[in-house]
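Troubleshooting: if your tokenizer reports a length mismatch, compare your output against this known-good record of 71 residues.
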Amino acid sequence: MILLDISTIAGISPIVPGLVFILQSNMNSLKKHIFEILEGSIHGRASRICEIFIATLVVANVLAIILESVH
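Known-good structure output:
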């Protein structure tokens, strides 16, 4: 089932199982890398940007709620 979904998204025929396995392997490593960035276990530029973006988003939401409650 997963192989068919990945092959359909990638636009290749499911007759090439080796290529589908490579795509699935790359997708798993991409998911792992994104998870590590979001978790903060990787200390780099991408992780720092992600942390700043999430913190800014939280502060903006809190300010929006405060401004909404003031009439």
